[in-house]
Structure formats: structure tokens, C-alpha cells
Design goal:
It contains 30 helices and 12 strands. With about 675 residues, the protein is α/β, with parallel strands linked by helices. A hairpin with a 2-residue loop joins strand 5 and strand 6.
Length: about 675
């Protein structure tokens, strides 16, 4: 089909009109193509059989289906570098992208938060993860059915972790220290990656140093002292390159005269002490300070801001130095624009050993905790006004340009934040623990990180009790109850509310009682008791008088209960007052949420056109704020309204958007 305009034949959209003001022709948004596997570091030797195995698996994937290749071996043996090399060479054969997940960043107390890991994959592929964790697995399989991606799963410990993360198609490459023969039952090719041979290791070092540096005997001895492990060779070789007058023979002699050695490597490959002692001692003073921070920091990721807050001078320069000697790598899959770095787990282990008896270890850890409490407080406050028990924190730390930017920072730091909460609890820094929990509410509630939410808040409740803060006990128990409520675990939610209510006679801030009434009202609605819910929200509203945001939130809840109780006209009156207050106070979060309830009230009254307008307003605002669960709720209601109105065009538009949000 062609279109002709003034004698010219054109393709695509044509709009003919006598007078045109503004016309917007919307094209489909391009599907994201993530590139998360880091580039290789440099010269590469002696892995031809392994590269051939990956290429063979890719050939089978292109014929249709799923390929799985597993590499196991000592820490530092070069598993990640092998996969990085293969990915760079064959990137064009993964038209839908390559994705990376370090399971170490999702591992807590032996278990991996698989739903949250999948949520990251789904977002990278342009699909919003469902709030219900179990649905993320089926959605992931749906999203990957028509795509050809590479999925790199690093630091895997158990076959079950891989099985839970298998896509419908594509190439899955697994790296880990433990042997994983059980994955052969899933069709995987499982290979043990050994250290470099003396010949291959010497060739690698010679490529770095050139022909005039060190004898063949010295290079072979260096490879032997480093156990043939590329990670150790990289670190030592980088310092040799940086110090042109440092003899190779002297480095070999230093390694030989240190206690222990790589000949004592156990099956886990955890003892790289002599090599990394030598690397550490040649770092600059600020480089050594940053290395000590790696040993103390409980989380997996570093940033220049954290290093500065922890007292590392010239933090950016120190990060550049450690990156140059391959002690840290840049994180390529961060959720926000802030640069982050991760140290190899072998490096972290050595750094921990160097700092285990450090006289100022507790003080350094306290600075890390204070940094995260301060920036979390700033992020929380950037997302609007709400009841907060703690004082404003974060003085001297960088703030956030918007609530959306604050939420992205919190989400990018989620693994660090949980680790810091657990470390602070272990140190019995109770005030830090419950304050962190209070500030993490918008992250956990907004992104539905249920495992982290529940684990941190159990510690938060205990810390608030030890800190003798009844208001905080009630507040944190209520936030914990909301996690259970959202998972439809109504019994545990009610139990937390009952325990919190025991503290109410000791509470100073009356609005704290209001948050309990709010959650109890939500439980009443879930249990089919709207009349009791109206009572709870009315009382919660009274407790929040004088707090504009609190009044708006409780009015929002009250309106929902009134609709459920068959009183939509009254609900509209309540909503009108709440919307006026939200406009006056620029409460954008509630201005996004209120129209959805207004739409339901109009629907109950049969005013379907008004309902469509209100639901559309909610969908627009939610999309602008990247609050995708709320946007999905609005489009779900729009589909129902379209069916009542017999409007197939509206129904299809909303269904199409829902497929993007939760295909």
C-alpha cells in the first residue's frame, strides 16, 4: 500500500488536514539491547578448547533452543576473562544483548535472592518485573522465548541456582569454583578450567613486558610463584609495567621468601596471600587505604563517594590505581549513573585478612555505616514528605536531583545496604540499624524487594528494642507487617501489628499510632470487612491531622474503603479534598495515586467516561515517575472500563501497554 501526496508517493504515516497545529506520530520504543559483560582486559592465551566449546554451544543455540556451558575452577584462574573474550568476539551473534549477574551480590546467609536477580534481567530487557515474586520466573521465560541473548551467571555455587534462572532460549554461561556435574542432566557442557601452563603463562607475561624484560627462566618462575593464575599474574604484571626499573628476578625472590605460598592452594583456591601482599605493599598510600576499605566494607560494591566518606584521600585516583592493577573492575550493570566497582572475591578475601586485626577497623566500618545511613536518609527525603522519626541525615554528602534519581541510587546500592544493616546489627549499633530501616521504606515498598525487606526489618525491630525507642519499634514492625501484607501473608502481618500495639502506651509521636491503624485497615479490606476498614482509616486520618502528607494518604485509603462499602459518592468528596491538598503541597506521589481511586469511584457510579479520564491520568503520571506497578494497575482498570464501554481501541491500547509492562 502507498500514499500519494501532491503527486508524490510516500511510505509510512500521512496526515492530511486543512490546518495542522501539532501532530505527534508515535513510533514503538526500541527494545533495549543490554551489554553487561565487561570487555576483556588484554592479551589472552591457551584457552582454545574452552572457546571452541562455547562456539559449539552457540551454533546449537542459533539452530534454535537453549545452550548451557559451565566452567569451574580456582578463584583467579580466568573464568571471567574467558567469557569476556568470547562475548567480545561473538557479540554480533547475540542480537538481543548480553546480561551479567554476579550471584555473590545476591547471596545472603547461603541463599540467593533469585526473584530480585530476575527482576534486574527483566528491567534490562525492557520489561517491568511483576510485584509477585513467583510470577517473575514465568515472565522471564516468556520474555526470552523470542530472543537470543547470552546470560553470564558468575559465582554460582549450586546447580539449583542455575536451573531457576534458565531462559527459554539463548546461551547460558556459568562460572563458579564448585564442581557442578549435576547440570549435565540439563544438557550442560561442564568443564574444569585449570591454571595456565608454564609455557602459556610465560607467553602471556612476555606479551605484557616485551622482549627486553626478564629472562625466560625468571618469567617461568614468576608464573610458578603465581600458580599459573591469570588474576595473580595480572596484578603482579601491572606493577612491573608501572615500574620499568623493577627487575623481574627481584619480584620472584620476594614471592619465594614470603611465608605460605600458592603451592598451598586448597580446593577453593583461597590462599593468594604472598602474591597480593607484594601487590599491596607497592600501592600508593591512598591505594593501600582503599584496599583496606575493601577488607572492611561488608558489601560487594565500591564508589568514589563511599571511599571519600570513609576517609580515603584522592579517592578517584586510588580507584584508578586499583583498577589499573586489576584489583577492582567497573560494574557495568548499575541502575543509576554513579560509577561503581567490585573487587574479585579472592581480592576481597585477601583484603579482609590484611584488615582483620587492623587497630582502626571498627572506626572504618563505622564510617561506612554512617555513609550509607546518611545517603539513604537523603534519598528517602528526596522522595517527598512523610512521617520520619529520625533527624535529617547526610550532612556533607551529595544529594539527589529528583525522587526518581534517589530511588535508582537506592536500588543500585541494595546489596550494599542489606550488608551494611547486617554488619551494623552484628556490631550492636542499634540506632544505625533501625534508622537505616526507616529510610529504606521507599526502596522496599517501591521495588518490592521482599527478601531484603523482611531480613533487614527483623534486625531493625530488635535494634529498636535494644535502643529503647518505642516509636521506632512500632514504626519498623509496621513496615515489616506491610511486607507480609503485600505478600498476602496476612497472619504474620497481623502478628506484627499486635506486637507493635503493645508498645503504643509508650509512644510519643501520635502519628505512629496512625500507621498501625492504616495497615490494620488494609488487612480489614483484604479480609472483606470494608466497614471496619472505614473505621480504621477514619481514626488514622484523625491521628494525622496537621500532617498534610499523612492526611492525604489516609484520605486515599479511606476513599478505597468507602467504595468497597458501597459509598462511592462519599469517596469522591474525600478524594476531592485530598487532591486539593496534594496540589497545594506539591505531593506528586499522591497526585499520581489519587486518580486511580477516583476512577474506581466513578466506575461504581456508572460514570464510565469520567472513570476512563481519571485512570488515564494515573497511568500517565505513573509512567512519568517510573512507578510501573501503579501504571499497570491503571491500565488493568482501563481494559475493564473499555469492555464496559465496548471500546476495542482503548482496550487494545491498554493491553498493549500491559504486555510491555508484564508480558
Amino acid at each position: 500500500m502507498t500514499n500519494t501526496v501532491s503527486g508524490a508517493t510516500v511510505g509510512g504515516h500521512v496526515v492530511q488536514a486543512d490546518s495542522i497545529g501539532a501532530v505527534h506520530l508515535h513510533q514503538p520504543e526500541p527494545v533495549p539491547r543490554p551489554r553487561q559483560v565487561r570487555p576483556p582486559r588484554g592479551p589472552f592465551v591457551n584457552r582454545e578448547p574452552e572457546l571452541a566449546a562455547l562456539t559449539g554451544a552457540l551454533d546449537r543455540v542459533e539452530a534454535g533452543g537453549l545452550g548451557i556451558v559451565v566452567f569451574t575452577g580456582l578463584g583467579g584462574v580466568g573464568k571471567t576473562e574467558l567469557i569476556a573474550k568470547f562475548t567480545e568476539e561473538h557479540r554480533a551473534r547475540f542480537p538481543d544483548g548480553d546480561l551479567y549477574a554476579d550471584l555473590l551480590a545476591y547471596r545472603h546467609q547461603g541463599g540467593v535472592d533469585l526473584p530480585e536477580l530476575l527482576a534486574g534481567f527483566l528491567r534490562a530487557l525492557g520489561s517491568e518485573p511483576p510485584a509477585v515474586e513467583a510470577e517473575r520466573f514465568t515472565k522471564f521465560r516468556t520474555v526470552t522465548a523470542e530472543r537470543r541473548c547470552l546470560f553470564f551467571l558468575d559465582n554460582v555455587e549450586h546447580a539449583a541456582e542455575v536451573r531457576a534462572l534458565l531462559p527459554s532460549s539463548g546461551l547460558v554461561v556459568v562460572a563458579g569454583r564448585r564442581r557442578l556435574p549435576a547440570l549435565r542432566m540439563d544438557g550442560a557442557e561442564v568443564r574444569q578450567l585449570g591454571p595456565l601452563s608454564g609455557t602459556a603463562g610465560t607467553e602471556l607475561v612476555r606479551r605484557w613486558l616485551g622482549a627486553g624484560r626478564g629472562t625466560e627462566v625468571e618469567l617461568a618462575a614468576l608464573v610458578e610463584e603465581c600458580g599459573g593464575l591469570p588474576l595473580a599474574l595480572n596484578a603482579v604484571g601491572s606493577q612491573l609495567l608501572d615500574r620499568e626499573h623493577l627487575p623481574v628476578g627481584r619480584v620472584v625472590a620476594e614471592l619465594r621468601h614470603r611465608e605460605g605460598g600458592l603451592a598451598m592452594l586448597d580446593d577453593e583456591g583461597s590462599d593468594l596471600g604472598p602474591t597480593y601482599d607484594a601487590v599491596y605493599e607497592r600501592l600508593s598510600p591512598q591505594g593501600r587505604a582503599l584496599y583496606r576499605l575493601i577488607g572492611v566494607h561488608p558489601g560487594p560494591f565500591l564508589s568514589a563517594e563511599l571511599a571519600r566518606a570513609a576517609g580515603v584521600e584522592q579517592a578517584a585516583k586510588a580507584l584508578t590505581e586499583l583498577r589499573a592493577v586489576h584489583l577492582v573492575d567497573e560494574v557495568l550493570d548499575a541502575d543509576d549513573s554513579e560509577e561503581r566497582f567490585r573487587a574479585h572475591d579472592v581480592v576481597r578475601l585477601h583484603a579482609y585478612g590484611r584488615t582483620r586485626e587492623l587497630p582502626g577497623r571498627a572506626e572504618l566500618l563505622a564510617r561506612v555505616v554512617a555513609y550509607y545511613r546518611g545517603r539513604s536518609s537523603l534519598a528517602d527525603r528526596a522522595m517527598g514528605s512523610r512521617l520520619r522519626l529520625q533527624e535529617a541525615g547526610g550532612a556533607g554528602l551529595p544529594g539527589f536531583a529528583s525522587g526518581a534519581a534517589a530511588l535508582e541510587w537506592l536500588h543500585a546500592e541494595r546489596s550494599n545496604l542489606r550488608a551494611v544493616v547486617e554488619a551494623a546489627a552484628e556490631q550492636r549499633w542499634h540506632g544505625e540499624v533501625w534508622r537505616l530501616c526507616e529510610s529504606l521504606w521507599p526502596l522496599y515498598h517501591g521495588r518490592k524487594l521482599y527478601q531484603d525487606w523482611i531480613a533487614t526489618h527483623r534486625l531493625g525491630v530488635e535494634s529498636a528494642q535494644w535502643d529503647n525507642q518505642p516509636d521506632a519499634v512500632v514504626r519498623v514492625r509496621n513496615q515489616l507487617a506491610r511486607a507480609h501484607y503485600e505478600r498476602k501473608e496476612y497472619g504474620p502481618a497481623a502478628e506484627q501489628l499486635a506486637l507493635a500495639a503493645e508498645q503504643l502506651p509508650l509512644v510519643v509521636e501520635r502519628r505512629v499510632a496512625g500507621v498501625l491503624l492504616e495497615t490494620d485497615g488494609l488487612l480489614c479490606l483484604a479480609d472483606g470487612r470494608p466497614g471496619e476498614a472505614v473505621d480504621r482509616f477514619t481514626r488514622a486520618l484523625a491521628e494525622n491531622r496537621g500532617d498534610a502528607h499523612g492526611e492525604i494518604v489516609q484520605s486515599y485509603n479511606l476513599a478505597q474503603a468507602l467504595i468497597a462499602d458501597g459509598r462511592p459518592e462519599q469517596a469522591l468528596t474525600v478524594l476531592a479534598e485530598a487532591a486539593a491538598r496534594a496540589e497545594a503541597t506539591a505531593d506528586h506521589d499522591m497526585l499520581m495515586k489519587l486518580p486511580l481511586v477516583r476512577a474506581r469511584a466513578h466506575q461504581a457510579l456508572g460514570q464510565l467516561d469520567l472513570a476512563v479520564a481519571a485512570a488515564g491520568d494515573c497511568a500517565r503520571r505513573a509512567g512519568e515517575r517510573k512507578q510501573y506497578p501503579k501504571e499497570a494497575q491503571a491500565h488493568t482498570l482501563l481494559v475493564a472500563l473499555a469492555e464496559e464501554l465496548d471500546d476495542p481501541e482503548l482496550a487494545e491500547r491498554s493491553r498493549a501497554r500491559l504486555r510491555e509492562l508484564r508480558p
